[in-house]
Amino acid sequence: MDITPSLRGLQAFDAAARTGSFAAAAVELGVSPAAISQLVRMLEEQLGRKLFHRQNRRIVLTEAGREALPRLAAAFEEIRSVSAELRGGAARPSLTVSVPPSMLSGWLPMQFADFAATHGFVDISMRGEDDPVSFERDRIDLRLSYGRFHYSGHVMQELATDAVYPVCSPRLLSELGPFGSADALLAAPLIHTDWGPVAAAYPSWSAWFGAQGLNAGPHIRHGLTVDSSRAALDLAETGLGVALGQGIYVAPLLDAGRLAVAMNAPLALSQPYCLTVPEQSARKPVVALFRDWLSRRSIAAIGHPALGR
After folding, report:
1. Do residues 100 and 145 lie in contact, with contact meaning Cβ atoms separated by under 8 Å?
2. Which domains, and CATH codes, for the chain?
3. Across-strand partners of 97?
4. DSSP codes, 87-101
5. Contact in structure between 307 and 266 (CB atoms under 8 Å)
6. pLDDT at residue 61 greater than cutoff 90
7. Using one digit for the tens of pLDDT, what is the confidence trace for 97-154?
8. Cα–Cα nearest to 145, from 184, 109, 186, 100
9. Strand, coil or helix: what is 155?
């Protein structure tokens, strides 16, 4: 006999899977954690499949739960959209975009005017966070990440491989430059970026000078050190030294005359930038529009003519 699963049970499962706990799901749905637990257990009995591993107070999706969640999340999203239409017109398009923190604090906000001019205003929730992210729990529609090694279970689009460039303020370049060789640049004040031991490999000044055939020695570590590429570029803008900046961040600052390339000798990053869209979001038209737009803008910035690539 075909038994249709309980809608309340499906809601409880969806909320618990996204939030990671029965307690958080209870707050979202306005019931008690015990009620969520009971609804999920009844749903599992109806389906004849276990959806969560229960580990003390933690819950972890089983393989069956992971398989069901994307389609169920998409179904509830469609229900919410239809409900909004019935309440008074078409729902305004919305999406949640996740990017590395340095991209959210610098480059990406400067691009939104172009998207709005082309596609109109969209409700966009922006998240600046490190990899890996949870698409299901946080309802993320699109993730822009550095490297191809984070989301093997999803469809991923490689955009382009960026490079770092020695950049400084135009004033510093006029005072200390031109830097015709790595030896000349070694005498300038340098700005370093250090993300700590868990960050992905990123070209350092030692690596850049090594690529130019110069062993910079231990004194290369002298100077200012910050923990983000955006902060390094901010310091370079003030004229305090030369920083290694990624092309995607540097391009608009070159256009604005706030930075200059100190020496045309890029050093390529080891991994490309990638776009990942989970299955449950791929059907949303606004996600496809934003994905295509972000892909074009990213590739254009990385290959900016002023960077000489």
Report:
1. yes
2. 7-64 (1.10.10.10), 94-160+271-307 (3.40.190.10), 163-268 (3.40.190.10)
3. 126, 142
4. HHSPPPPEEEEEE-H
5. yes
6. no
7. 999 888 887 788 888 888 888 777 788 888 888 888 888 778 899 999 988 888 887 8
8. 100
9. strand
